[in-house]
Description:
Low-confidence stretches of chain A: none
Shape of chain A: globular
Largest sheet of chain A: 7 strands, mixed
Helix content of chain A: 25-40%
Number of helices of chain A: 11
Number of strands of chain A: 13
Distance between the termini of chain A: 36 Å
Structural class of chain A: alpha/beta
Radius of gyration of chain A: 19 Å
Oligomer: homohexamer
Amino acid sequence: MLRLTSPGYGRFVQAQSFEVNYGGAEANVAAALAVWGEESFFVSKVPAHEIGQAVVNTLRSMGVNTNFVLRGGERLGTYYVERGADIRSSKVIYDRKNSAFSLSEAEEYDWEKIFAGADWFHLTGITPALGQESEHLAAAACREAKKRGIPVSLDVNYRSKLWGADRAKGALEKLLADTDVCIVNENQAQELFGVSGERAMQEFAEKYSLRYVAFTYRRTEDALHNRIWSTLYSDGKTVKSCEYRMEMIDRIGGGDAFAAGLVYAIGHGFELQKAVNFAEAASCLKHSVPGDVCFCSLEEVLSVADGKTLGRVSR
Amino acid sequence: MLRLTSPGYGRFVQAQSFEVNYGGAEANVAAALAVWGEESFFVSKVPAHEIGQAVVNTLRSMGVNTNFVLRGGERLGTYYVERGADIRSSKVIYDRKNSAFSLSEAEEYDWEKIFAGADWFHLTGITPALGQESEHLAAAACREAKKRGIPVSLDVNYRSKLWGADRAKGALEKLLADTDVCIVNENQAQELFGVSGERAMQEFAEKYSLRYVAFTYRRTEDALHNRIWSTLYSDGKTVKSCEYRMEMIDRIGGGDAFAAGLVYAIGHGFELQKAVNFAEAASCLKHSVPGDVCFCSLEEVLSVADGKTLGRVSR
Amino acid sequence: MLRLTSPGYGRFVQAQSFEVNYGGAEANVAAALAVWGEESFFVSKVPAHEIGQAVVNTLRSMGVNTNFVLRGGERLGTYYVERGADIRSSKVIYDRKNSAFSLSEAEEYDWEKIFAGADWFHLTGITPALGQESEHLAAAACREAKKRGIPVSLDVNYRSKLWGADRAKGALEKLLADTDVCIVNENQAQELFGVSGERAMQEFAEKYSLRYVAFTYRRTEDALHNRIWSTLYSDGKTVKSCEYRMEMIDRIGGGDAFAAGLVYAIGHGFELQKAVNFAEAASCLKHSVPGDVCFCSLEEVLSVADGKTLGRVSR
Amino acid sequence: MLRLTSPGYGRFVQAQSFEVNYGGAEANVAAALAVWGEESFFVSKVPAHEIGQAVVNTLRSMGVNTNFVLRGGERLGTYYVERGADIRSSKVIYDRKNSAFSLSEAEEYDWEKIFAGADWFHLTGITPALGQESEHLAAAACREAKKRGIPVSLDVNYRSKLWGADRAKGALEKLLADTDVCIVNENQAQELFGVSGERAMQEFAEKYSLRYVAFTYRRTEDALHNRIWSTLYSDGKTVKSCEYRMEMIDRIGGGDAFAAGLVYAIGHGFELQKAVNFAEAASCLKHSVPGDVCFCSLEEVLSVADGKTLGRVSR
Amino acid sequence: MLRLTSPGYGRFVQAQSFEVNYGGAEANVAAALAVWGEESFFVSKVPAHEIGQAVVNTLRSMGVNTNFVLRGGERLGTYYVERGADIRSSKVIYDRKNSAFSLSEAEEYDWEKIFAGADWFHLTGITPALGQESEHLAAAACREAKKRGIPVSLDVNYRSKLWGADRAKGALEKLLADTDVCIVNENQAQELFGVSGERAMQEFAEKYSLRYVAFTYRRTEDALHNRIWSTLYSDGKTVKSCEYRMEMIDRIGGGDAFAAGLVYAIGHGFELQKAVNFAEAASCLKHSVPGDVCFCSLEEVLSVADGKTLGRVSR
Amino acid sequence: MLRLTSPGYGRFVQAQSFEVNYGGAEANVAAALAVWGEESFFVSKVPAHEIGQAVVNTLRSMGVNTNFVLRGGERLGTYYVERGADIRSSKVIYDRKNSAFSLSEAEEYDWEKIFAGADWFHLTGITPALGQESEHLAAAACREAKKRGIPVSLDVNYRSKLWGADRAKGALEKLLADTDVCIVNENQAQELFGVSGERAMQEFAEKYSLRYVAFTYRRTEDALHNRIWSTLYSDGKTVKSCEYRMEMIDRIGGGDAFAAGLVYAIGHGFELQKAVNFAEAASCLKHSVPGDVCFCSLEEVLSVADGKTLGRVSR
C-alpha cells in the first residue's frame, strides 16, 4: 500500500505535501525479517506502473525478495495518515477498494514455486477482509503452506471498517485451522472470540490447536504516549513481556514489528520468555522510527530485549 | 481531484514525498474566473472526509463558491504527475475510477438552485468520459442549462485512455446539441470530428449550431518548451491568437486557463481578436505558475494579451 | 497579520526560511466558528497587494466570509515567532505599527451592511491597543453592535508592550459598557481590574453589567508543557472547566480558540458547565495543531469536551 | 533589509513559507568585496533584536566588518520577492518605511572612526530616497568622505516608487558633487539626467567632474533570460564590456555585483577595458547564484572576465 | 560513494543541507542494467556501518545484486557537488582517499563465485586510479574475467586529479590487454593515447585488439546546456550516434549511462548503429534525471533512440 | 568538523538529505563566548576549499575571529549523526582520520601572534586524541599559553574510540601540568584518574595543581530525556549546580556549552556557586537549540541560572 502522511503534526487540510511510504502489514513483517538478516519473500500483486514499481524498490532496498510479486491490476491500495498530538487523535483514511492485490485470485500465484524451500508463512487478518477474492486467496495460501508442513502465523488484525465481526470470525476460524501461531490484541480476542485475560490463552490455543498464542496490550495516555506489553502462551506455559511506556515517533507498523519479532524468535528457537521479550522490544523500537518498518538491527532489538538500552548516545 | 506530484524533476520511484494540489478541469476554470473577480460556482461531489474537505477549502481560498459541492461517496479521484525535462516526457498515472463524482447521479443535484441566477455553464469532455452515470449527468446538466437559456461552453478534452473515439463522439455530439461555445485541440478535432484547419471551423460551427468554435494548437520542442496558439471562429469570422514559445513551469491546467479566458472574454463581450488573445494569454501565463490554476490577475492577463509584458521585474 | 515562524525549534538567527501563517486574534475566532459550520464574517482592512490578498484567501479557505475586508493602506502587520523548547522560552517580535488595519478609521466601515443579519460581535483588546484610530474604531464597532441589540464579546487580551495598564483600563472599561461576554486571564484581571479568584467574578460581572465572565488560567511547566483551565460565571453561578496538561505543538491562538468555543457555546445555548468545557476543549485542541487556527471539527471538540478522546488512532 | 521570497516559482498567495535573505544594495557590495578578500565595512543601523542580529551575522559570515552597524530603532526594512518565469514578471513588494536605518540620523554615526583608514566609500541612490533623514545622512557621509580625500562611488539606482524624478535629481546632483565614480543604467541616465548613448558619457562625466562613469544596459527576453552589458568612461576614453545572455537563477543584486566589481577593479588599478569586463563578469556571475550576494571567488570572476569559463564541471 | 549535493543552485557555503546520493561509476552502470531488467551484480567493499549499508540498500532498491559487496574498512569515499548555472561551472570536491574500497585487495574477493555464471564484466579507469591496491585489484579482476572468457568493457574515465597521465597510461594499457570494449572521450583519447577523430578509432582498436571502441564527445554551451554525441567502431566499421543538445537536470552519471547502454546493446546483439544510438539515448536521458543513475525504462530509452520521443506528456 | 545529521528522527539508511552543521568541541566553546559578547579566536586548520571556507563563514557569522585558522591539508573531519528517540539511542559515526587539523603540526602555528593579548586558552581532550601530531600540538599550545601566564582550561572529553585509556591518561596528565581549570565527567574521572564523588575533587585538584575542577553528571532516562548537574571545586570549596531534567532538542555540544559557561564565569570573576549555575544553565539551554552551538544570549543564560525562566512565551 501507498501511505500518504501529512507533514509534521499538520492536519490533512493543511498539507501542501504528503510524505510517501510503501508498506502494509505483511510487507512490514517481511521487511523487518530481512533487516535482521533472514531471507524473506513478499507475495502480492501491484499494478504494472511506476507506483507499483516503487513498492518493489522499497522492499528490495530492505533486502526483501520480490520475485513473487505479480504485476497487474489497476491501482495500489492507498491510505492517508495524519499524526495526532496530545489529546488530538491520529487519523487514518483508507482508499484501498479495488486494489490490484485485493482483486487478485489464488490461481494467479504459483504456490509450488512460492513455497519451495520456505520455512515459514505469515499472514494477517487484513488480507481476507479485503473482499471475496482475498478471503479465498488467504485460505488457499494457508492451506498450501499447511499441506507442505510449513508453519503458519496469523496476526488477527481485525479492522471493523473492513468487515463485520461475524464474517470476520467465520473467515478467521477457517484460517486458524491451518495456523500454528496466532497473535491477537486483547480487544479483538474479546470481540471476536470471546476470550480475555491470561487464563483464556490456553483455552484459545487448545480450541484452535495452536502452538503459540500471543495477546498484545496497549494503553493510550495521549496521541504520542502509549504503554504496551504482551503475553505469550505455548505448551501450557504463559509468560508476560516487559512493559514499555513509549514516546512514539510513528505508531504505524508497531504490531507488525511484534509479529516479525515473534516469527524470528520462534524460528530461532528462543525460549518462551526471551521470545516474547524480543517481539515486544521490536515493537517498542518500531514506534521510535518513522515509516512502517522496524528499521532496527538485530543487535538493537536484542539489546533492548535484554534491558541494556536506555537511549544513550552511541559514539 | 487530488494531484500528487513528484518533487522537482525526480521520477516517481525516487519520490519520498508528493506535492499536493486539488483541481480538475472544471474546477480550474471556476478558479481562474474567481481570481479574475467573477462570481463562480463549482458543482461536483466529494467524499465526506478531510481529503474531500481539502478540495472545498482550496476552491474557497480562490474565491469559488462551493455551496453546490455535494458530500458523499467513497473516494476522491487521484492522479500522479512526474515532471519531464528535456527529452524525457512528463508522466501522468490516473487512479480515478469509482470517485465520488464519477458515481454521482443527475438526480442528486438541485438544478433549480444551481442554475438560479447563473449566466454561464462550462463543462469538459472528461466528465462524460468517467462512466455511464457521468455521461448522463453531463447530458442532464447541459439540458438543464439550455432550457433556462444559459450559454454552455464545452471543452472537448478527449482522453483516449478513458473512452474510445466512437463512444466519445456519440456522447459529445449529444452535448454539442446544447452547446454554444466549443473548444477542441487540433488533433481531437481531426480524430473525433474529422475536421482540421481554419477553414473547417465554420463548417464545424454550422454543423453543431455553435456560436463560437476555438481550435487550440501545441507544438512540443521538449518536455519544458512548447509553442501554443489558437484560432477562434464566430459568425463567419476566424481570427488567430498570438503564438507563444514557452519555457514551462507546470503544464497541467494550460487548456483550462484557455477555456476560462474564453468564457471571460465572451461573457464580457470582447471582440473576437481580443477574445482569443485574452484566452491564449491566460493559457500562456498558466504555464508559468505551479499548480493547476491560472493564479494570475486580470491585469497580468490583459497586459500579456496586449503584448506589454516581457517578464520584467515589477518593483 | 502575517506570522513568520522559524522552522522547527531553530532560533531566529538560524532560520534560512520562515513558515508563513496569516491570522490574528479576531480572525482566529472567525475561522474556528466557520470550521464548526457557523456563518462568520471578518471585518478588517488589508493592503491592496498580494500579501493582503493572501490573508483573504486564507480566511476564505476556512469558510470565513471576507466581504467586509477593506483593501488599502500600506502594510500588513507582521510578527516573528521562534518556538521555545524545554527551559528556553518562545519568542515573539512584533512589527505591526502602521498596519493598514491599525490606521483604518471607523468611517471607512459600512456598519449598516456589516451588522445586517449579524447575531454576534466579537472583539479583542488588541484592537484598541493598536493606536488612537483603532481605539475609536473598537468603540464605534461595539456601540454599533450594541445599538442593534447584537451581543458583544470581548477578549481582554492585554499586551503591555502595546499600551500601558492605565490607558488600557480606560479604553477597555468603555468597551465593557457595551459588552455582554468578557474573557480575561487571571493575571490581567488582577493587573487591570484588581480582581482575582472565583469569588471576584460575580463582582466583576455586576460592576460592568456582563452576562458572562470567563477567567482563564495557565501554568507553565516548560516551553512545551502547560496546564490550562478556566472558570465561567453567569447569573450568579460559577463553574470550572476540566483542566488539561498539554504537550503543545503550537501555542499561538490557544486563547482565541477558547473565545470561539465560548461564543459557539453561548450562541447555541449550552448550559454553563457544558459551555466552559466546550471552550476549554477547543483551546486544548488548538494547542495540538500547527498554525493559529483551531482546525478541529465540532465532533472533535465535543468528544474532548465530553472526555471521550484520549489521542487514540481513529481508523 | 530582510528579503522574503516565495519558494521556487510559486506566487505570493501560494507560499506556505518564505526563503530568508538579509541584504541590501550597499550590503551586497560590501559582501562581494569581502568575498574577494578586501577588508570591507558596512555602515548602517538595525533594530536591537534577533532579526537585526541576523543581518549582522549574515554579513559577518561573508567577512564584512560590522563594527559600525548601530543597534536601535524599531524595525528592519522588509521586502517580498516572487520569482517570475517565462512571460510572467517577477514581483517585488516593499515594506520598508520607518526602518531603523531610514530614521537614523547623520549625528548617530562616528565618521571619524568610520573613515579612519578607509580608502573607498560606496553609496547607492536608494539611501537618500528613503526619506528626509536618509537624504541628509547620504549627503553627510559623502561630504565626510570627500573631505578626507576618500574616493566616493555612487550607484544611482533610482526607484520611482520611492521618490519622484525631480526630488531624486536634486538630491543626487548634490551627491554627485562629492562623487568620483558614478554608475547609472541607461534608462535612468535618460530619465534623470537627459543623457543617453556612449557619446553622452564624457559630457556627463565633465558636467559632474566624475573620474569614472559607467552606463549599464539590460534587455529582457523573458523573466529568466536577460542580456546585459555596460560601458565605462574615464579620462576621454570609453570602452564596452562583453555582452552576456543569461539564464538567471536570481536577479536581485546583479547591479550591486557590477558596482562591487567596478570598485574592486578601479581600486586595484585595472586598466579600463579589464575593469569593465571584471565588473560585468561579476554581475553576470551573480545572476547564477541564489540570494543577493555575488558568492563567487575572485578566480571565478577573473576567469569569466577573461572569457575562459563556459560552465564546465570543475573536478 | 556518497555524493553530497548543495540544494538547488546554491553554492557550497550557502548549504544548510546536502542532498544524499549513493553511487559511483561502476555502480551506476550496474544500476542502469538492473533497471532495464538485466541481472547485474556490484562488486565492491563498503564499511560495516549504516552509511555503508545505505549503499547496499540503494543498489538493491534498483534491483542490483549486492551479494559480492564486502563489508569492512573505515570509510566510504565521499564527494561534494555544487550545481552550476549559466556561466558558473559546477564544482566537485573529492574526499575519497582511504575509502574501504580503495584499500581493499584482490585477495579479499572470491573471483570463482563472482564470475560463476557471469557473462560480462565492466570496469572504469577510476578504480585503478585510486591507489596501488586498486590498480592491482583492477588488473586482477580483468585477468580473472578474461581467463574465463567473459567479455570485459573498460570506460577510461581518466581523472587527472587522481593520477598523472603517464601512470594512467601504463596502468590502463595493461587493462586494455584484457579488454574487449573500450569507451573513451575524445580529450582523453588524445591526451592518454594520442589518437583523435573517427579515423583513429580503427587504429586504436587494432593496437589493443579491441572488439569495440566508442569515442564520446561533449560540447559545453553553459553549465546547464551541453551537446553530446559519440562514435562507435567495430570490425572495420564506424558509426556516429544522434547528437543531442540537452538542458541538463543532473550531469553526474551521464557517461555511466552511455557505458551501460553500450553493454546492453552489445550484450543483446544490437547492430552497430542501433547500439550507439541506444547508448547515446541512455546517456541523454540520464541528464534529465536527478541523481547518478539512469532511472529510465528500457521503453523510454528505445523510444528516444528511435527518435520517437520529444518530451510530450504521456497520459 | 562537518556534522551531517539525518532529518528528524529518521535513521541513516532512510535519509535522502543530511542537515549540515560545522562545529567541533573547541569551536563550540569559542562560538558561545562570542555570542555572549567576548572576543574569541578559533585556532585550527581547514582545507583550502569551499567546505573549509564554510567552517570559517559559520564561525564568523557568530562573531568568532578566524584569523588564526590555517588553510591547507586534504579533508575536513566529518561525522554522521542520527537522532534517537525513546528507547532507541542516538548514533554517531566518525570519519575524521587524516583531517587537515589532525595532521597539522605545532610549527605551522604562530604562537606569538596567537597569544598576543589573549587572556584565556581552552582545549579539549579530543585534540590530543586525534594522533601523534595532534598530541604534540596540544602539548605545545598549552606550554605556549602557560609560559605567557595565560590561564588554560581543559575539557577532558575522553573518547575511547579514539585512543585507549592508558595513552589518554599519559597524554592528558602532561596537559594537566599546564592546566588551571579542568572539566571532566564522572565516568571519565573514574576511568582515567580513578577518582569519583565530591570528596575526590579536592584531591584531584591538588594532585594536578588545578585552580578549578568541575565534575559533570548525566543520567539518561531515554534518548530525549536526560538529567544533568555538576559540581565545581576551587580553593577548598565545592558547590553543586542546579539539576535539570531536560527534554532535549539536540544533545551535541551540551558539554561544550558547559565549558564555555565556566570559562565565562571564571573569566568574569563570578563567585563559585554562581559560576557553576551559569555553566550548567548554558549547558541546559544548549540542549534546547538545534546545532552544536549554545545560541542563547547572555541574558537568557543568566535568567535560567537565576531560576527565573520556565519556558514562557516572551512577547
